[in-house]
Amino acid sequence: MTDNPKGSPAWTLDPATYFDTRGPTHTVPAPKSRYLEMPDGVRLAIDVYIPEGEMPEGGFPTILHLTPYYRRFAVEPGAPPETEACPNAAKFRDTFVPRGYAMVVVDVRGTGASFGARDSFRSPQEREDFRAIMDWVVAQDWSDGRLGATGISYVGAAADFAATTGHPGLKAIAPISAVWDTYLDHYYPGGLLLTHLAGAYDDLMQALDLDKRDAMRRYVYFADPNLAGPAPVDGDENRGLLREAIAEHAANVSLVDFIREFPFRDSTLAYDPDFSGGSFSPRAYMEHMSDDLAVFSISGWMDGGYMNGAISRFLTLGGTRRHLLLGPWDHGARIQVSPFRTREEPEFPLHGAILRFFDEYVRGDETGLANEAPVHYYTMAEERWKDAADWPPTSGQTLALNLTDAQGLVEDGPDAGAVTHTPDFGFGTGKNTRYGRLQARDVRSYYATWRARSENLLRFESEPLEAQVCLSGHPVVSLQFQTDQADAAVIAYLEDIAPDGTRRYVTEGLLRALHRKESSPPDDYHASWPFRSCEQGDAQPMTPGEPDRLRFAMLATSWAFEPGHRIGLALAGADKDNIVRIPYGRPGTWMIHVGDDEPSVLELPVE
Fold this sequence. Notes:
Jelly Rolls, alpha+beta, 2 domains, 27% strand
């Protein structure tokens, strides 16, 4: 099946049809590049694309792309003319510039051809840089003073950070696969460290920041042998300035070291008690965002935990100028992840949808976007797009399935009992998981080895369904849980089991038992699912041998379980390939209590 929205009733005017109406009116020029000096004297490399063709009265609106992944590569002599020097920014450039937007692409400080060093992941200093960049753009004679910002992952979060400056010129942002809270959405989901993510990211950034081309070419995004390191700015013919800038990057933060400084969500740097996990999370600065800012949050069902960030941004900011798009995609919407797909590459015109958004809120066109529902999402297995007025789209309707001591899932309350289990610390989900693309792996087929890998997990299964069950939202697992250890990593997997025995991974949820205490979501991170702070003051070890309630959400999805299929819940105490093993070297013995006054339940938000 396909994610192409052409003709879908989920839109009044679908994104593909809209894109067809917005043909090119200008051509893309070669960029003009220069250094722009920040208030503290650090010079940032920028590329400026001004559409070739008639300039509207007052100038062009401008799209910002603020990236640590090179604004542009130099190209080896003799490279084929089709060599793409902007593998990260090219699709944005080729969408917006021909349609009447100027575009400014920036190497953030400590990266590419820019000077300086990064003192943290998503350094707060960058917010001030972004303010200065926007001040410069709106002062140019080719600018009409109206700005939008977009990009994937770090670049999407940079759009968030630019918005938190409250700059009056920034009218709209479209963050794609971008966190709202770096701790919860990215590195410590459920309070559990994703062990290989920081190291993989460090390896990539070392290769980029220090211009280590052999190492860089191990990554599919930068594998073209014709790419020759960061492009110098105009006038730096001997690359002397570029060499000076790269030398300064040696001081860049090591993410492996940095992220372990924050074992709790409110942990601070030992040498700076004012610097916490919030310091590198957009949500902590949201009070500075303009009330008139338009926000288009975009993510996919296999996008690590980033869909939680997209949903929380949408719920937290609220208002009529907020839009949410959740598709059958991985990180950056590079791959169509539905197991029922007919091709790997998405057919959804994502950049066309963003174009319509910017046309409405940056250019000020009447695009009909006001007539569309604010939420659009794709239901896998049913393989179709849907719309909704809010998230979740299920109006509170829930299918509650009780765990039984016979390892079943039943609607009626079972008799009291318990299931004992010793987790396998050797269990791992492999590399082709929802976390793989976050590590810059070229994952094409997700959880293809799920059935073989997961054979020995603790499982609970329903009887074959008599009618379709369509889940949309965050499944919730509520366990009356006992262990002989003071802590545990509990990982819950939702499965679709076909009549022929095929098991398909649907989604998963993580919780470190230490963080089981629930609390109300804060003002800067609204959640429609069970929330816990993961702060040190709320952390509480388990009492060995005594049961306690563990209630936690799985990552959001939309999936249709067809008649004859069974719903499965699998529990694990480790994923050696992705998640820290807790407690160290001691898997312990679990007891899941079921029935009567101590039910353990799987709750599915259903349409």
